[in-house]
Design brief:
The chain is an all-beta fold. Helix content is 0%, strand content 52%.
């Protein structure tokens, strides 16, 4: 079974940076989607950024130019580099994965495997 474990969250001031990590285990598919999603208080879980097996990425407009998703296949680790953080970025951030060959959607309901989340809080 796929297991995802996030780390790297914390409390920072606006304009500062954080890097989130997600370590994956038990994932045997050679084709996949992985992504970062976030949820502030409320029902909506927003797709922040996704990446496919070939490294193709897709970002939410709200983070484009500030956040970068990347992966280190040798370490089975997914990253989210977050620069120029804003108070609006405050949320619980989740790592997600799904076996897939092709482009990756940023729809939370599409993903079946999830980490436990890591909290990011940005103060102004």
């Amino acid at each position: 079974q796929v297991q995802l474990v996030e780390s790297g969250g914390g409390s920072v001031q606006a304009g500062e940076s954080l890097r989130l990590s997600c370590v994956a285990s038990g994932y045997t598919s050679s084709s996949y989607c992985m992504g970062w999603f976030r949820q502030a208080p409320g029902p909506e879980r927003e797709g922040v950024a996704v990446i496919d097996s070939d490294g193709s990425t897709n970002y939410a407009d709200s983070v484009k130019g500030r956040f970068t998703i990347s992966q280190d296949n040798a370490k089975n680790t997914l990253y989210l580099q977050m620069n120029s953080l804003k108070p609006e970025d405050t949320a619980m951030y989740y790592c997600a994965a799904e076996a897939w060959s092709g482009s990756c959607p940023r729809r939370a309901e599409w993903y079946n495997y999830w980490g436990q989340g890591t909290q990011v809080t940005v103060s102004s």
